[in-house]
Amino acid sequence: MPCEIHLRKVTSTQDFAEAIAGMIEGEILVVAEEQTRARGRMGRSWFSPRGGLWVTYVKRNFPVEKVPYATLKVSLAIADSMSELNPKIRWPNDVVVNDKKIAGILIEASVHGNSDRGDLFIGFGIDTEVREFPPEVNATSYLIETGRSFTKDVKEIVEKINYWLEKDDSEVIKQVNERLSIKEKKVKLITKEEEIKCKALFVDYMGRLVTECGVFEVQDIERVELEK
Q1: Topology, domain 182-228
Q2: pTM of the predicted protein model
């Protein structure tokens, strides 16, 4: 079982986990009640007040070649943890309910030397009991959607993550496409240089988003929004 560390407040569970990873043997689970400088993909800020579940799970000895699929696999695990809401996957790293974000995933890896295995830092945040959001944040929470508290233990979610990490990549892509929230919808793809508007089609076998105006790698896109 992972070494569990529970914090009332931290800048970022991901940064904290990366700072202590070399000091503790075995897997680590960092859980915080609040993050003050949480970060998402490409260093974007992440609204994560009290009332959410903010976690980094450090998985050791993870195959490097499997890292590119990890975000989609963890997204499916998080979606499964709240299946009663019929959540969807918004490529590449969000879980949404009625097109509002309810969870996000940040995957980072650390490899030492020429090894083909390394440490996988699985950061995820779930809006479990957040009651309100800033106007610019298009999000929802489990409490808002159901009127109830989120009762699943973080260990149950970790079990689901490990289940999906072991799944065949082709099955994962199939499941992602079945649950893809932006499929056949007009989207805005935001990069560092520009905004691209077109129709999203599907996720291909390499985990790329196929659209009517091209094929996009995860690292090329900062975020994806529905075109209004």
Answers
A1: SH3 type barrels. (2.30.30)
A2: 0.94
